[in-house]
Amino acid sequence: MGGAAVLAERIAERRAGLGDPRELVGELRRALVLVPVDSGGLWTAEFGGVRWICAFTDEAALARFARARDAAGGDPGREAGGAWEFAELRGARLLDEIVPALGVPAGVAVDIADPEGAMAFPPVRGIVPDDVAIDAPADAPTGPPADRPAADGGVR
User: Fold this and answer.
1) Which tens digit of pLDDT belongs to each residue from 1-42?
2) Are 99 and 131 in contact (CB under 8 A)?
3) pLDDT tens, 50-105?
4) Is pTM beyond 0.85 here?
C-alpha cells in the first residue's frame, strides 16, 4: 500500500517524541489509507466537537477496529463479525477535498484501535485547508500555507 507502512513508522516516531510533525503530515498526505465505508459514505465518528474520518494504515489495523466495534456492541444495521467495506484513498484527498466537503470541523484519525499507534490529525492550519481550519483567524486570507507539504511530497 502506497506509503501507509511509512506513515505507521512516522506515527511511532512522533509518539516516541522523535521526528518532525510536518514530515508526519506530509507522510499522511502521500499515503494510501483504508477508510471504512458505511451506507454509501465514509465511516466517521464525532468526538470533542470534531467529525473524525477514521483511516487505517493496513487491513490488519482495520480488522482490529472492526473487532473492537463488534466487542463494544457493534453498529446499528451492521452484522457483528461481518466484512467491512472500505475505500483506499490518498491522505491528501482526505485532507484537501473530503474534510472541507463535510461542512463541519473535521480531521483524520489514523489506526484508532491501536492505542500505541493511533494518531489524530486535527482540523488546524498546516493540516487542513485554512478556510476550514478551526484555528484560522476570521480575517486571514484563505489558501494553502506556503510550508504545507504537497501530495507529491514537495512543498507548496
Assistant:
1) 467 899 999 999 999 999 999 999 999 999 999 999 988 899
2) no
3) 999 999 999 999 999 999 888 766 555 555 556 789 999 999 999 999 999 999 99
4) no
